[in-house]
Design a protein that fits this description.
Elements (H helix, E strand, L loop, with lengths): L45 H17 L8 E8 L5 E2 L2 E2 L4 H5 L5 E3 L6 H9 L5 E6 L6 E14 L23 E16 H14 L7 H4 L5 E5 H9 L7
Parallel strand pairs: 1-5
Antiparallel strand pairs: 1-8, 2-3, 4-7, 5-6, 6-7
Function: Specifically binds 5-hydroxymethylcytosine (5hmC), suggesting that it acts as a specific reader of 5hmC.
Protein name: Thymocyte nuclear protein 1
Subcellular location: Nucleus
Length: about 240
């Protein structure tokens, strides 16, 4: 029996600023309160020095060449705490993923067109951050990889599923999902607050997180990352938490 649909945090809705973004019937419009809190300035100097040190290392590794701006990694939000949606608990933490056969599961329940298109753009072997969302302290907890590219999300046709979509047809499904497999836990939990501090500093000094979708499209549950964004966030696991 498949797990209930759960890999969509309740903030994963269409950005109202986008005229062509539609919201499916099953989609909620409740924002992630943790991720929409007013931004606060980072501790003086802490983020900028981290960015400069990281930049020096990357320049040493690559001969100072600028990397192309392409999306080749991802950030997947999931809710680690119990929350009922139409009578179904949508909780799914990284520990739940690790408990699955072969530590693999389908990433279902996405009901936002932009997020769906990101799912459809994923390629075999690409890595993604597993991000705990809509909880007391959101943040990156681990890494997964794509082991099956996009195919129809069966939950859109299941009337008992909280993400059932009566307007979707089997001959032309609206919604897709991918299969992901656990790779590893990050060496430490990387909280949203810490990533936000670097984002704010990078907006001022041109660092890699300056345009990170976690802050420009924070309500999307599926987000692309550039190589630089992925590498920088991953580098934070080596640092002691502030």
């Amino acid at each position: 029996m498949p797990w209930p649909s759960r890999k969509r945090d309740k903030g994963a809705v269409a950005d109202k600023k986008e005229p062509d973004a539609k919201i499916a019937k099953t989609e909620e419009e409740t924002p992630d309160k943790e991720e929409e809190e007013k931004s606060t300035k980072p501790p003086a100097g802490s983020s900028k020095s981290g960015w400069k040190n990281w930049k020096k290392t990357k320049e040493s590794d690559s001969g100072g060449e600028e990397s192309k701006i392409t999306y080749c990694h991802w950030l997947l939000k999931s809710e680690p705490e119990s929350r009922l949606e139409k009578g179904v608990d949508v909780k799914f933490s990284i520990d739940d993923l690790k408990a699955q056969p072969n530590q693999t599961t389908f990433w279902d329940g996405v009901r936002n067109y932009q997020a769906r298109n990101f799912l459809r753009a994923m390629k075999l072997g690409q890595q993604a951050f597993f991000y705990h969302s809509n909880c007391k302290e959101p943040g990156v907890v681990g890494i997964v990889k794509i082991v099956k590219e996009a195919y129809p999300d069966h939950t859109q046709f299941d009337q008992k599923d909280p993400h059932y979509d009566s307007t979707s047809r089997k001959e032309n499904p609206k919604w897709s999902m991918v299969d992901v497999q656990f790779v590893r836990m990050t060496k430490r939990f990387i909280p949203l607050s810490e990533i936000k501090a670097h984002h704010l500093a990078h907006k001022a000094d041109g660092g890699p997180l300056k345009n990170m979708m976690l802050f420009t499209r924070q309500r999307l549950s599926i987000q692309p990352l550039t190589q630089e964004e992925f590498d920088f966030v991953l580098s934070l696991e080596e640092e002691k938490p502030h």
